[in-house]
Amino acid sequence: MPVSSVTSDLESLTITAVGSYPVPVERLWAAWADPRQLERFWGPPTWPATFMRHDLRAGGRSDYAMTGPNGESSRGYWLVEEAHAPERFVVHDGFADADGHPNDDLPTTRMEVTFEATAGGARFVAVSTFSSLDAMQAVLAMGVVEGFTSALAQMDDVLADLREATAHATLERLDATHARVVRDVRGTIHQVWRAHHDAGLMRRWMLGPDGWTMPVCEVAVEVGQTYRYEWESEAGEGRFGFVGELVAHEPPRRAVTTEQMIGVEGPPVRNELVLVPLPAGRTRVTVTISYPSEELADMILATGMVDGMEASYARLEATISG
Question: In the chain, what are the domains?
Answer without folding.
Answer: 3-160 (3.30.530.20), 170-321 (3.30.530.20)
